[in-house]
Structures are given as structure tokens and as C-alpha cells.
Amino acid sequence: MSTARFGRGQKAMALVPLALLSAAWTASLAGVGVSTASADTAPDTTLPDGTSVPTQAIKAPASVSVAGGVAPGVHGSTEQVVSNVSTSGIPAAALAAYQRAETVINSADQGCHLSWQLIAAIGRVESDHGRTNGNSLDSKGVAQPGIYGIALDGSHGTTRISDTDAGQYDADAKFDRAIGPMQFIPSTWSVVGVDADGDGQRNPQDINDAALATAVYLCSGSDDLSTTAGQEGAVYRYNHSQSYVDLVLSIMNAYLEGEFTSVPNGTTSAGYAVPALPVTHNGGTKHHHQQPHHQQTNNGGGGDQPTEQPTAPPTQEPTEPTSPSTPGGGGGGGGHLPHLPSPSLPPLPSTSVPPVDQLLTHVQAVAQCTLEGYVDNILKDDDPFDQCVYDYTHR
């Protein structure tokens, strides 16, 4: 039997309704029902961990820039960053986290009207969706080995911020450092940090927690983020830089126009899968992601100036970096990427509308094959990605 081919337009359209899948995955966690609430039922304004969105707008910045740079996830000109958003890809865990955050926050604060594309734009600018400084997202959406900024000690054009968390989050008991995929200052994280995935932790390195915390920050106060004025005001509070605001909103608009693709977790911004490296330790073997030899300028420097690691970096052992032999994410050779997790998506309930059910089945097949590590190559007739999608939709 010949394999059905899916054109570029079909695949692009299939990615957009992934928000429907994200909403379904989020419903049980956030307590969001599938039926319409009655007029007598007050909306649930609580977040998954029982906290709520601040009624007063948070004025303290979530992140800060340094002189000469916009943010750590920005390399090259801002024009290049905007023009390349469709090719850089969004890791599957990050895309799901952004879409869940939209669903949860707009249920808790129905006047905010926040889009996941705005959250994603901040994630792109702050850390390239968790992939700056040699990091990648693991199967649970946690940045490995961990994203830490330079010490905010007043040098290198930074704002001087003395330690506020006793090194709990940033491993620095003298000065604060920006942390995680959304680059929160620890003092601000202590206000908006949330356990979005129900694992019992508020972890700034977890893209699920960090994305929802960003949503909480942006929706604090009474701004309507469906308006340009509301978006500009909220993003400026997040980082007090007009060039930062302009870049974030430009990327958001590109995402709103469908200029994005999903890539497997563990894929770096260069399009390579990061395998778990075996290391002999105390007579045994364990696996971890490769540890970079140094961190680069964070919170604004564009990653051009290497600086010291935090005083107590994460516990992964340093290893010599290797060159992964299997390209992925960037539309490379197709096939299946090794060492990637293969989680299963839950079955979708029937809508009793055949065309809708057919579309959702195809969307879920695309999402499942992406999570399993298959890489789409539209130039090959025997693309394993297409075969995977075909198998899911015809079994």
C-alpha cells in the first residue's frame, strides 16, 4: 500500500490546532471543564497549585537586559531573529507548555485574553525556548543542565541586585542571577512562581512552571492583552527595555501568522538532538546531558561574552562536548532520532462531526510522531515521518 503524502500546507495547518490538544491535556490539571458554565456559576480564578493571579500589576521586572544586548536568547541582529522564527523551531515540551499556560491563565483571569504566542515570543527571546548556553529540554520540559545568568553585580552593564534567595534558585548567595527558560530574577520568581504540572515543585528551570509564571506576571493587574497597548504595557513591565518590547511583539506577530514549527525535545537551536552520554561513575554507568564548559552572557548580552558558572552549578558531571551525528529539527535527513522519549498522547473524545474528528486524529498523529522523535523531510518520498503519521491515522 502506498503511503499518503501530506503537503506543507496540511502540515502547517495541523500544527495550529495543537492548542486543542493542549487544552485537553490541561483540563484535568487545571480544573477546566469542557462544558459552558452557567450564569450563576462564579468563574474559578485559582491556578493549578491553589494560588491566584495578582490583582495589582507587578511593577518589578521579571528579567533585565545588559548594556549592548536585548536578551540571552538573541544572537545576531533582531531582524534575523524575527525572519528565522519559522526555521528555529519550538521544542514540543515548550510548545505544549505555552499553550497550556494560555488555557489555564485565561480560565483564571478571563479579562486578560493572553495568547500563547506572546508567552512563546518571550521564551524565544529569553532562552531560545530553553536552549541557550548549550541547554536543551528533557522529556519533562526541564532545561538541562540548567540556565543561569551572569551575576547581577553591576558590572558588564548589569543592574546590581544583591542576593534575594540565599542561592536557592540561582546557586549564588552573593548576587542574584536570572534563572530558567523565562529568565526570572529570583525575587520576582518568588512572587509569580507556580507549580503548573502538579509535580509538587515550583521550578524555574521547568518550562511548564516558567511559562505559566510568565502568564501570571503578564496578566497581573487589569490590562487587556488582546490589545496592542495592553501587550506593550505588560511586556515593558517584564523587561524595562523598549527594544525588548519591540522584538517580543514582532516575534509574537510572526507566531500568530503561523510562522512556527514543532521539533522534538532534546533538539538544540542548531537542529541537533542531544543524546544522553554514558559516563562511568563509581563502577557503574549513568546518563546525563553534556555540560557546557562555561555559561555565556545572560539577560541581554546576546551570548557573546563567556562568564563564570554559578558558584554552585547543577550536579551534572562535566564532560567533553561531542558532535552528535544525527541531525534533526531543521528538516534534515528524516528518520528517527535516538535517545528521545516516546510519550503517548491521550485519545481524543469524538465530536460526532466526522470532518472535525478526522482533522483532530491527523493533528494528534503529527504530535505523536513529533514526540517520538521523527523528523519531517518534505523533500523525500519515503519520509519515515509521513509513514508514522499514516500508520497512526489508518490503524
Q: Could you say how many structural domains there are in total?
A: 2
What structural class do the secondary elements suggest?
mainly alpha
Q: What fraction, in percent, of the residue positions are helical? A: 25-40%
- Largest sheet entry: 2 strands, parallel
**Uncertain residue ranges:** 1-42, 274-342
**Count of distinct strands:** 8
Overall form = globular
The spatial strand order of the largest sheet comes to 1-4
Report how far the terminal alpha carbons are from each other.
Answer: 13 Å
Number of helices: 12
Kindly state the mean pLDDT as a whole number?
Answer: 73
- Radius of gyration, whole Å: 21 Å
- SSE order, as H and E? HHHHEHHEEHHHHEEEEEHH
Q: In a few lines, what is going on in this structure?
A:
The protein has 395 residues and is mainly alpha-helical. Helix content is 34%, strand content 6%.
Using brief descriptors, characterize the structure shown.
single chain, disordered N terminus, globular, two-stranded antiparallel ribbon, 34% helix, 12 helices, 8 strands, 2 domains, two-stranded parallel ribbon, 6% strand, 395 residues, mainly alpha
